[in-house]
Write a structure and sequence with these properties.
disordered N terminus; 9-stranded antiparallel beta sheet; Lipocalin
Length: 200
């Protein structure tokens, strides 16, 4: 019985131990004013929609580049500009990837990237409401992102200040000319954005 209790105590303690010693902490005070580059290796948008009422379907876009200009003393003046690589979208089946990149959906050969440019930011504590313009297939529509600050700190790999946010948003496929298979496939798309930035 003692062995079982000890094992249970260890299994509970392991997640807590795993969280200690991480380079980043949820302290906005570590972020200094400046222009930061998007970290394309750790920035992605995950999209999810209802597929024919049978299942939920997800895929991802990675960041190709971009910047965030921010002054913690003036959060409302921050400027975000990020480009995403539509032509390198990721799903779990290669034939489906080709289908999404075709003219039926993204026409990635003609429109290889998407872009988000902020137009306003309202910050409150560790959260922010980011409004901006999203351009897909040369169509630009307003989008609002609900963002939460994750953490900041010096990256032991590149010895530079890194920080990041997690955000959620919702768009409609039809707004961007992506309405193929409607209404069989849901028009509403939920987005989860993990955005990482590094000092230049």
């Amino acid at each position: 019985m003692r062995l079982i209790l000890a094992a249970l105590a260890l299994s509970v303690a392991i997640p807590a131990v795993a969280q200690t010693g991480l380079p980043g902490t949820p302290s906005k005070a570590l972020v200094t004013a400046g222009t930061y580059a998007v970290d394309p290796n750790h920035t992605q948008v995950t999209w999810t929609l209802n597929h024919m009422g049978f299942s939920m379907l997800s895929g991802q876009f990675g960041a190709q580049g971009g910047t965030l200009t921010i002054d913690p003393a003036k959060p409302a003046a921050a400027k975000l500009d990020v480009t995403f690589a539509i032509d390198r979208l990721s799903v779990t089946a290669e034939p489906f990837s080709h289908h999404l990149k075709s003219k039926d959906f993204f026409d990635a050969a003609t429109y290889p990237t998407a872009r988000f440019v902020s137009t306003g930011i309202i910050a409150s504590g560790n959260t922010a409401r980011i409004t901006g313009n999203l351009t897909i297939k040369n169509v630009t529509k307003p989008v609002t992102i609900a963002a939460t600050f994750v953490g900041a700190g010096n990256n032991p790999m590149n010895k530079k200040l890194n920080f990041g946010f997690r955000g959620t948003a919702q768009i409609k496929r039809s707004d961007f000319g992506l309405g193929y298979a409607a209404p069989v496939v849901a028009d509403t798309v939920d987005l989860v954005i993990n955005a990482a930035f590094t000092a230049q």
